[in-house]
TrEMBL record:
<keyword id="KW-0456">Lyase</keyword>
<dbReference type="Pfam" id="PF02746">
    <property type="entry name" value="MR_MLE_N"/>
</dbReference>
<dbReference type="InterPro" id="IPR029017">
    <property type="entry name" value="Enolase-like_N"/>
</dbReference>
<dbReference type="InterPro" id="IPR046945">
    <property type="entry name" value="RHMD-like"/>
</dbReference>
<dbReference type="InterPro" id="IPR013342">
    <property type="entry name" value="Mandelate_racemase_C"/>
</dbReference>
<feature type="domain" description="Mandelate racemase/muconate lactonizing enzyme C-terminal">
    <location>
        <begin position="193"/>
        <end position="289"/>
    </location>
</feature>
<dbReference type="InterPro" id="IPR034610">
    <property type="entry name" value="L-fuconate_dehydratase"/>
</dbReference>
<keyword id="KW-0479">Metal-binding</keyword>
<feature type="region of interest" description="Disordered">
    <location>
        <begin position="1"/>
        <end position="21"/>
    </location>
</feature>
<protein>
    <recommendedName>
        <fullName>L-fuconate dehydratase</fullName>
        <ecNumber>4.2.1.68</ecNumber>
    </recommendedName>
</protein>
<dbReference type="InterPro" id="IPR036849">
    <property type="entry name" value="Enolase-like_C_sf"/>
</dbReference>
<dbReference type="Pfam" id="PF13378">
    <property type="entry name" value="MR_MLE_C"/>
</dbReference>
<dbReference type="InterPro" id="IPR018110">
    <property type="entry name" value="Mandel_Rmase/mucon_lact_enz_CS"/>
</dbReference>
<dbReference type="InterPro" id="IPR029065">
    <property type="entry name" value="Enolase_C-like"/>
</dbReference>
<keyword id="KW-0460">Magnesium</keyword>
<dbReference type="InterPro" id="IPR013341">
    <property type="entry name" value="Mandelate_racemase_N_dom"/>
</dbReference>
Amino acid sequence: METYDIRFPTSRELDGSDAMNPDPDYSAAYLVLRTDAGDGVEGHGFAFTIGRGNDVQVAALDALRSHVTGRPVAELCADPGSLSRDLNGDSQLRWLGPEKGVMHMATGAVVNAVWDLAAKRARKPLWRLLADAEPEWLVSQVDFRYIADALTPQEALDLLRRGREGREARAADLVRRGYPAYTTSPGWLGYSDARLTRLAEEAVAQGFTQIKLKVGADLEDDVRRCRAARAAIGPGVRLAVDANQRWNVDEAIAWTKALAAFDPYWIEEPTSPDDILGHAAIRSAVAPVKVATGEHAQNRVVFKQLLQAGAIDVLQLDAARVGGVNENLAILLLAAKFGVPVCPHAGGVGLCELVQHLAMFDYVALSGTTEDRVIEYVDHLHEHFVHPVHVTGGRYRAPSAPGFSSAMHPASIATYTYPDGTFWAADLISGGETA
């Protein structure tokens, strides 16, 4: 297991800027699993951070190495849940969570790398590996501890068995038409109104039927920016807004109502991601504007409570925040049980590449629908991946290459590894002026 600290200088163009994160340098605490199987197949995984946090995140990955190295490859790929259970069960590391924060993100990165390895060895894209799997095996991959009061193994099995009905027709439809996307690319908080307008108009011309704007720093600015965005996209395109946890509950209600004239489809992360009852209060007060959250939800237990409390209209799982594919299977099953649509969080470094597989599995073999469901899309950093996402006409095209789409080009790793990669070494010499 090899680890890398990979950072991109996105803060210099304010890409990714929002009300809580004004200067993000999109980064990946990255790992590669290599085996002696002789087939040259590797497993790639990562945790997404926004800069200096990688110092801590890579150290967390390294702390898990002893659980990974030396395991029989075939056995591990046949049961990734065995590693997930071992990583979450390390009592000394679990103390740092439990099942949340830096260690849990590290667990997710390692587990996702195993799924990448398993899918490559099966010669299938991950969405297809999951969709083809027997329901009983998928249930065996889920940890029902702490969620069985809301979703039992038998209920999960019933959902997956129903999801198999018609799956081949849906898989063919997915390959033919793709999966609906929305774009956040026009809406970064640091962009000028002119740039926002130009990118919003381009998004509509490209076929997107929903865009998203960052809000929450200044109400007067948000009113002006929402007005410009609505004028650019017209009344028939959905406009979502995202506060990135900026507000108290009462602020969230007042601010969202102040933006209601621009017909926002949802308000995203209006308050602390841990505040279940706060989200429920906001949802009750701002309807018909929907409430969406989940990219910073720590684990399946938080998602369970959001659903039990009727706190959200849209569930936004993240491929690299929780404990990997296994825990995201639990979250998808919970959403299916409660009938809440899943619109995954993406963007960042490689999150689009990962999350497309989870949403596509959900459509093909679980929920069976894409109604009111979209995957976030942000148009940057995809060129660093061996199998980047392909979005045309406002839709994600189904990946066909085996694996989890998580492998980065070796040249990108060599260039952007911090602090000794060629970009950062030159940047140090130039005093931070490298572009």
